[in-house]
Every structure is written in C-alpha cells, then in structure tokens.
Amino acid sequence: MTDSSDSLEQRDLSEQVLIRRQKMDKLRQQGVAPFGRRYERTHLNAAIKDGFELLDGREVSVAGRLLSIRSHGKASFADLADMTATLQIYVKTDIVGQPAYELFSSFDIGDFIGVRGRVFRTHRGEVTVEAHEITFLSKALRPLPEKWHGLKDVDLRYRQRYVDLIVNRDVMETFVRRTQIIRAIRRFLDGRGFYEVETPALSVIAGGGHARPFSTHHNALDLDLSMRIALELFHKRLIVGGFDRVYEIGHCFRNEGISTKHNPEFTMLELYQAFADYNDMMKLFEDMVTSVTQEVLGTLKIAYQGTDIDLTPPWPRLSMMEAIRKYAGIDWQSIKTDAEAVAIGEKLGLDLKNKKTKGMVLDEICSELVEPHLVQPTFLVDYPVEISPLAKRHEDHPELTYRFECFIWGREMSNAFSELNDPVDQLERFLQQAKEKEKGNEEAHVFDEDFVNALEYGMPPTGGLGMGVDRLVMLLTDNLSIRDVILFPLARPRAD
Q1: Span 346-373, pLDDT tens digits
Q2: What DSSP assignment string belongs to 312-326?
Q3: What is the rounded CA–CA span in Å between residue 193 and residue 273?
Q4: Which end of the chain is more exposed for a tag (fewer CB within 10 A), N or C?
Q5: Domain 169-316+376-484 has what CATH class?
Q6: How far is CA 295 from CA 134, 269, 409, 472, in A?
Q7: Domain spans of the chain, in order of start
Q8: What is the pTM of this model?
Q9: Which letter does DSSP use for residue 366 in this model?
Q10: 115 vs 53: CA distance, rounded Å
Q11: How far is CA 484 from each of CA 186, 214, 409, rounded to the nearest angstrom?
C-alpha cells in the first residue's frame, strides 16, 4: 500500500514537470532554444567575488544555474551558481528591456542562463552583476528539492549525487577538495622521483592483500578472472624489472560489507621504493600526509568530528606488543601456544571465527582494544607473520615482520612493509596461506606461482606502502562516512 503523503508528493512533482514542459514548448514558440548552445564567459563567480576591487564597474559574462529569484516589481535579484560560488544577479526592466525582463520572469529555479553585465556592490555589501543581456542556456524539467531536503534523505543523496551537488554547496566543496588532495599526492611523489604506473584491474589471481575478491568471466578467452583487491604484486614485478620507485592511484574492489569505513570499490595509493625499508616508508608517509595537508588546508592542526588532531611530525612509533600491554593489560610475550592465545581472545569476547593462531588473535585484540585509543597519528609496528604473508621477517623476532600500520582517530590510514624478497620464504608462506584457505578462511592470500618466479630473478630490498585515498579525504574534509567522499557509492536498486 502506498502512503498517501507519497502519492501527493508524486502527483505534485508530476504537475510541476508538466508545467515546465509547457514552458519549454513556449520558449521554442518564442524562438528561444530551450537547450541552448555554447556561451563564452569571462569569469567564474568566485573570481568576481574575490577580485571585486579590480572588477568594480567592469563588464563581465557569467553563466550558471538559477537557485533563487526575488522579484520587486520591475526589478529582480537572483542567485546564479557555478562550480565555484553563488553570485547575485540584478535584473531591471529599464536596462534589459520589457520583453527580456518578461522572458526572465518566466524562468524556473534550476534553469541555466548566461548574464553579461556590470559588476557592482549593493548597499548591503553584496557583490552583484547588473544584467545588460541575458541568454537562456538550458531548461530544467524537474524542480530542485526543497532546501535541506537532500540532507534528510541520505539514501537519495547517494543515488542522485547530481542533485546533492546542486543543493548542498558543502558537498561540492568536499569533492573539489578531494581533487586537490589527489593532485597534491601526485605532486609530492613526482617530486620524490617516483614514476606513476598503471597495472591490470582484471587478473587471474587477486593478490596483494587479505580480502574476498569479485569474480567475473572473460568470454573470448573462456577464463575466470578476479577484480584486483590490491596493486602490490604487479608493482613488485616492476621493481624486479628495474624500476626504482613506482606508484599508482587506482581503484580496488573487495567483495565485503559496506560500512562508514568500507566501500566495495575504493581508491588505493600504493608505492614501492627499491633499496628502502619500512622505516623509510614511515618517514615518507609522514612527509606526504603533512605536505598534502599543509598544501590543501594551510595548517597541520585540524579538527575531525569534534576532535583536535595535530599532524605535526614526528609521529610516535609503538610496537604491537607494547600496545597490547599498554591498552589491554596483556603480556603477549608470555603466551607460548595458539591455544593460550585463543583462550584469552574468547575470554575477552572476541569473534575468532577462522582465527586460531597467536598472530591472528593478536591482530583481533589490537583491532578491538588498541586501535580506538590511537587518536593522534601513531605508527603501530612489527606485525605477526601469519597476517603479513608479503612482509619481511623480523631478524630478532622471526614470528614477527617489518610491517607497520598508521592510525589516526582510531582508523587505519596506511599499511607498509619491508617487502619480502626471499622467494623460498615467500613460497612457504603462500603454501601456509593455502592451508588457511582450505580451513575456510576466504581472505587467505592465494598462491601466485608467477610472483614467486619473479622473485627468483632477484628483487632488491624494497619498502612498500599502501594507503586508502578515500580515508585521507575523509580526514581532511571532516566526513565520517566513506560514502560521503565517493561521488557515486554503490547502492542497492530501489524497489520502486
């Protein structure tokens, strides 16, 4: 049964669309093209507002979408929005003429127009363009939602991002800033001598991480393929081939749940540097984040969800063992067997499905009891071998690896290794991961014979790092959900 209020809303919308279509036909009858042609504008709105002192009294041409019209007899004020800002327009009968003013009065909110006119400031101090000529550019056949409506209907915001961008200026600013952040990352890495590369999104083997992949089928080759879950293994092949420093900003795909921190399709930065280790990666990541933040925001002291975050380096380093002792009160080194570790995990009420080794339990305890405390930037270092199949073993503690994750506001921001370049050790770890997969662990790493083959040709000591670009954007735009920094997040089709 359909709610009566929904029916009324749909009927009202249908009537408004019908009226706008009638206006579209009337424009054609008047010789006005309802979907226009190119328009030469001289300035963006923000440039006029910011450069008023130089533009005062000068003639400009602007173009954008009408967001409001306020009529006062033979004159009207209107708000015209482009990508950069909203600018006030002043339209007066005595200046544009009666026919043009009547045509302007028939325009709807959401229509696109071009305006040529003089820049001035009103008595209230509002930078304004006095219209001398108005050009109709495109008809909007659907009305925009009421102000704030888009904010209330979160699901509709994601499904119809184009409407969200129109009515919510802060959403547009988020995605403009996302572009600025990615540009700044590229500038930083290019300046450090890294080469940007492109690697396959489709592969026979989805390697380089612990995750369940999306599967597909190539008809011509009659071949089952997977969407990539990480960029790592192809990049290491490039290091074997002779590249010293490579990076890629690309989409990865993980067939997992959706949350405020996870989206099935996300943007990953991965980079690899020959003759380096995880200490170099810590310094590089610290430098990159602070450089990007300073360039985009102009400060290293930011507020995220009401919490003050200070990104000023150096950031503290804390081993997983130290962190467990500090935040969970557990002396992990005193635990000798997997059974002891599982018993402690179960006593703590942790979900240990398919996680029956010391290393896996340690990781789960860190996730639940340690990470929420890591609010300020912190490097958590030296992870267990079982959960780090591609990282080099720690020389002093062979059950651990040279691996770190960086946390800010309790969220993982990056993952990095001194990369495993011993092909014999790598083969053994792949085989161990295969046993885990047989036990039902769907996220266990797959066996990649060609990658072992590549390592046998020799890979220099290498530092590698991965970062979720979306999470950095969330931090620097003060957005809680990853879906708020992805233009078109995946959504289930509506039932209607």
Answers
A1: 888 888 777 778 888 888 888 899 999 9
A2: PSPPPEEEHHHHHHH
A3: 10
A4: N
A5: alpha beta
A6: 39, 19, 21, 14
A7: 4-138, 169-316+376-484
A8: 0.91
A9: I
A10: 20
A11: 22, 23, 17
